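Backbone-to-sequence.
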């Protein structure tokens, strides 16, 4: 005798099917009948779990955005105010890993803003605000303590998150004939070095980082007095 899947299992199958179809066909290009067929259930059963097609879409988007929540070790490091050279790479690695493991996320976000308009901003804010706030507060603390440049923590956070989310695609754009980096870990290391130089050059950067001649004076080296 066939065993009827329990409701949580059916809901999960519906969401997974919806993620695939919405990400590849868009919101208006996907029907609930197609979602039900891919989930191997009837359309009537689908509507016992979700009242509308739009509800299915937002549930699918949230399921992928859950991966953007900061890991416990990163949150603990932020709470303990660990050095930026430790925290920044962890943030970038998690963002890149999320996009690699959940490639549908960027497509779903784009579809939400293009096809569903107003509510997209509210849903993205709901999902991303905790991550944004945690990173921004951490950077603000480090800026106030003098461990980082005197920059706007909100703008830095926005740029940092954008870098992490878009990093895999950005790497492809810089060289159409070959990948810029051998793998994503190498890309993370390169972007970490970049952000380290931007945020705290007095700690991380070397004269060569800025293209200076090796024999040129730096701010740590006294210059010869001028003889007028």
């Amino acid at each position: 005798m066939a065993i009827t899947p329990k409701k949580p299992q059916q809901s999960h199958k519906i969401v997974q099917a919806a993620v695939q179809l919405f990400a590849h066909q868009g919101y208006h290009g996907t029907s609930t009948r197609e979602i039900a067929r891919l989930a191997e259930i009837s359309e009537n059963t689908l509507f016992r779990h979700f009242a509308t097609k739009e509800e299915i879409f937002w549930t699918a988007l949230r399921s992928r955005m859950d991966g953007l929540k900061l890991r416990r070790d990163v949150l603990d490091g932020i709470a303990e105010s660990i050095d930026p050279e430790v925290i920044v790479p962890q943030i970038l690695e998690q963002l890149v890993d999320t996009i690699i493991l959940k490639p549908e996320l960027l497509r779903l976000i784009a579809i939400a803003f293009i096809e569903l308009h107003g509510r997209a901003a509210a849903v993205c804010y709901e999902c991303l605000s905790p991550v944004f706030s945690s990173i921004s507060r951490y950077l603000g603390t480090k800026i106030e303590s003098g461990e980082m440049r005197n920059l706007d923590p909100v703008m830095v956070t926005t740029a940092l998150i954008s870098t992490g989310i878009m990093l895999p695609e950005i790497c492809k754009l810089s060289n159409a004939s070959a990948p810029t980096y051998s793998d994503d870990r190498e890309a993370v290391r390169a972007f970490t070095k970049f952000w380290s130089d931007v945020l705290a050059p007095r700690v991380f950067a070397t004269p060569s980082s800025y293209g200076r001649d090796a024999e040129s004076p730096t701010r740590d080296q006294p210059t010869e007095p001028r003889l007028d």
